[in-house]
What we know:
Elements: E1 3-8, H1 16-29, E2 34-39, H2 54-67, E3 75-79, H3 85-94, H4 99-103, H5 106-113, H6 120-134, E4 140-143, H7 148-165, E5 173-176, H8 210-218, H9 236-249, H10 253-259, H11 265-291, H12 295-322
Parallel strand pairs: 1-2, 2-3, 4-5
Helix pairs in contact: 2-11, 3-6, 3-12, 6-7, 8-11, 9-11
The structure holds adenosine monophosphate and tryptophan (TRP).
Amino acid sequence: MKRMLTGLQPTGVITLGNYVGAIKQMVKLQDEYESYIFVADLHAITVPNDNLNLKDNTRSLIALYLACGIDPKKNTIFVQSQNEYHANLSWLLECNTYFGELSRMHQFKEKSKKSNNFTVGLLTYPVLMAADILAYDTDVVPVGIDQKQHVEITRDIAIRFNNKYGKTFNVPEPLITKTGTKIMDLLEPTKKMSKSSENQNGVIRLLDDDEVIRKKIMRATTDSETKVKFDPENKPGISNLINIYSAITDKTVEEIESMFEESNYGTFKKAVADVVIDELSRIKKRYYEYLNSDLIDIILEEGKKKTRVMAKAKVDAVKRKMGFYD
Ligand code: AMP
Ligand code: TRP
């Protein structure tokens, strides 16, 4: 069985976009791959943030993974910072990575522009990501399109190291989640729904109350026509709601268009709100059960033990190849 690894940063409450674009995909993939899923908390400190609340956000993200259907029997679940070999391997890889290639990364260019006092960690972030991936001989890395370049540099680092020191790393492939499932902001449907949006009325958070979700969907921006038809260019608002309905129910766009052929926007929005509330209320119920149980501690303890052994073996192999005293 091929091995898959992916992680999310524990920053803020997960949105419906993250759920549809990332977590729901992981739930599907867990049956096809030997899966490793982690909380990328070391990546969350690359940009200064006074409200990180790492401890609570990490526990919350694990509870959400479980509540969304990530099965601890099928996945190895762990916290990046609880496995010191990630940062250890990252250093060894940093000394085999060039300043030029890191300074050309899109994300670095974009984020470093926002401040004239950014950290070195922002620059070396992709090498830590490479360490996460390469420590486990990962075959595939499911990520959003924004992270594709980081998986590509991971491949470059692995290939370069293998050429210089002999085969040490498996070269991974990115698995890009379908663009069709990109969920847009409810108020500005040409913009991606994002945790960091200024107006949170356009963003559904997984833990929003039912009534809040209903209000946000009922107030979603639509066009001046009346027909429920998929046309992202001319009808981005309605098309986004169709995408949401489709992602939640697994119905196709055509099926949805014909189901709501006779309906006005109000009726359709109510139906979208109903399916989203139904799915999220089940997730919320399980989330609070997991959050308050000690299952999380048991799972993380197992994950930590298992991944430390695996990552240590890889670090030892790398150190041997590089000629360190052992
Ligand atoms: P982010 O919250 O931007 O760090 O994204 C974490 C993961 O969720 C990535 O795999 C993204 O591609 C995915 N994701 C974030 N927002 C959306 C969205 N609006 N629609 C679909 N996928 C998303
Ligand atoms: N950088 C990713 C993000 O911001 C999170 C991440 C860190 C990751 N390490 C990873 C994803 C390894 C996949 C594999 O979303």
